[in-house]
Amino acid sequence: MKLEISHCAFGYRRTRRVLDDLSLTFDSGCTVLLGPNGAGKSTLLGIVATALSPASGHVSLNGLTPSSRKSRKEYRKAVGWLPQHVKPVAGLKLREQVAYAGWLKGMSRRDAWDSAAGALHRVGLAELTNRSGREVSGGQLRRLGIAQTLVHGAEVVLMDEPTAGLDPHQRGVFRDLLTELSEDTSFIVSTHQTEDLADIFDTVIVLDEGIVRYQGTVPRFLAEAPPDAAPGRLAEAAYIGYISREA
Ligand SMILES: Nc1ncnc2c1ncn2[C@@H]1O[C@H](COP(=O)(O)OP(=O)(O)OP(=O)(O)O)[C@@H](O)[C@H]1O
């Protein structure tokens, strides 16, 4: 998997650019995207997911760009997106909701229905396939969202603050799930939680004001923590160091 962002610029308003000439490459594995509020993380994920269109520049996945109608369909099928808030679809059971997500990505109804069962099984919701999305907990809803990204066989899954608001137990469940799923799917995860970083991720990116302050391996990132940082807070200390530096 090679996801490339080339010279992307984006602003919600003409006067202010959130991203300006941003270039980044993501390789296979699990990447964590860190950055303060307003850094541009959700915007970046929105562009990769094709929910937002850059003013200039382009994204490509394994050489495939979402520029034409045909290639956009293929590109979108290869990219899964778990937005910040997963909403249950009124009147749909979990399996129906996951199948619907697959159908929206261009799968046949039959394939989407069959694949939905496997996707729910992979995220540990096999027992709840006939439950309504309104009857599940916040953690289960997040796992439903992941199943929706897996149903169409995405090569890379983007997750925007997937553990925000989850209790420590559910965060642990999520961490274990991600570790298991990352054996055959790549993940790019935006988060403010740095404590389990070394257990889950291969690569760290720190984005601040639309600028990449760090991109590299977890060990190299942790090595940047100041010598007096507490052993359990190396990632947090390294992160604060990066966002405190002058551009
Ligand atoms: N729909 C929108 N309309 C106008 N401005 C927006 C919109 N969404 C985001 N912004 C602005 O764009 C900038 C980047 O926001 P973005 O949500 O990408 O940051 P983020 O790094 O994901 O932040 P957070 O960690 O708080 O989720 C911020 O200044 C934000 O206020």
Distance between the termini: 30 Å
Tell me about the largest β-sheet.
6 strands, mixed
Number of helices: 9
Portion of residues in helices?
25-40%
Instruction: Let me know the number of strands.
Output: 9
Rg over CA atoms = 18 Å
Question: How much is the average pLDDT?
Answer: 93
Going across the biggest sheet, name each strand in turn.
5-6-7-3-8-9
Bound molecules: adenosine-5'-triphosphate
Principal-axis shape equals globular
Secondary-structure element order, N to C: EEEHEHEHHHEHEHEEHH
Portion of residues in beta strands equals 15-25%
- The assigned structural class equals alpha/beta
Q: Which consecutive residue ranges, at least 5 long each, have pLDDT under 50?
A: none
Pfam family, one: ABC_tran
InterPro entries: AAA+_ATPase, ABC_transporter-like_ATP-bd, ABC_transporter-like_CS, ABC_Transporter_VariousFunc, P-loop_NTPase
Domain ABC transporter: 3-234
Protein name: ATP-binding cassette domain-containing protein
